[in-house]
UniProtKB/TrEMBL annotation:
Family: Belongs to the complex I NDUFS4 subunit family.
Known function: Accessory subunit of the mitochondrial membrane respiratory chain NADH dehydrogenase (Complex I), that is believed not to be involved in catalysis. Complex I functions in the transfer of electrons from NADH to the respiratory chain. The immediate electron acceptor for the enzyme is believed to be ubiquinone.
Alphabetical keyword list: Electron transport, Membrane, Mitochondrion, Mitochondrion inner membrane, Respiratory chain, Transit peptide, Transport
Localization (cell): Mitochondrion inner membrane
Main location: mitochondrion
Protein name: NADH dehydrogenase [ubiquinone] iron-sulfur protein 4, mitochondrial
Biological source species: Callorhinchus milii
A Pfam entry, by short name: NDUS4
InterPro entries: NADH_UbQ_FeS_4_mit-like, NDUFS4-like_sf
GO biological process terms on file: electron transport chain
Protein origin, superkingdom: Eukaryota
């Protein structure tokens, strides 16, 4: 590409931009050089016209209001026997027995019932034709999980979260001679 000198009206704008280092031979220079000499060039408006459009106030007549959420579940492509006859269990997972943390017990999960399984004759693995039986969905609240299940018309059961009761014990019981209340350090 050859860089042509811009028309006389644009010379001052291009010279200032070239001194600042913001104008290099390329698209902007080609655009400015292609402008006719009788057209006044305002470089600032070329770069901020989109910004000004975004800042302009939107009139109420342009807004679209939607009364309720649209239901798109018939468009999923999932076979009917996977949708209508589903049983779902909503629960909070138990704490990991190998660790003392309870971080994994704060989210609600959805687990689907187990459908027909068979042993694969080739490798001996368990096989299933149901893709949803191995899927586990996680939600932050019980209400979100119930809303999702009801939206998909699945029957469900809720297993409430069990909060363990702390054992009431004094600090002095750690040093007791009674073996039933004393905690061993071995």
């Amino acid at each position: 590409r050859s860089w042509r000198r811009p028309p006389p009206r644009c010379v001052c704008v291009c010279e200032r931009a070239r001194e600042r280092g913001s104008l290099r031979p390329g698209r902007a220079a080609t655009f400015l050089s292609a402008l006719p000499t009788s057209l006044p060039v305002n470089v600032r408006s070329l770069s901020t016209s989109t910004w000004r459009l975004a800042e302009s106030p939107v009139h109420d007549s342009q807004l679209i209001t939607v009364d309720k959420k649209l239901d798109i579940t018939p468009l999923t492509g999932v076979p009917e026997d996977h949708i209508k006859t589903r049983r779902v269990r909503i629960f909070v997972p138990a704490r990991n027995a190998m660790q003392s943390g309870v971080n994994n017990t704060k989210k609600w999960r959805i687990e689907f019932d187990t459908r027909e399984r068979w042993e694969n004759p080739l490798m001996g693995w368990a096989s299933s034709a149901d893709p949803l039986s191995n899927m586990v969905l996680t939600f932050s609240t019980k209400e979100d999980a119930v809303a999702f299940v009801e939206k998909n018309d699945w029957s469900y059961e809720i297993m409430e979260k069990r909060v363990p009761k702390p054992k009431v014990k004094s600090y002095g019981a750690n040093y007791s001679w009674n073996k039933r209340t004393r905690v061993s350090t071995k």
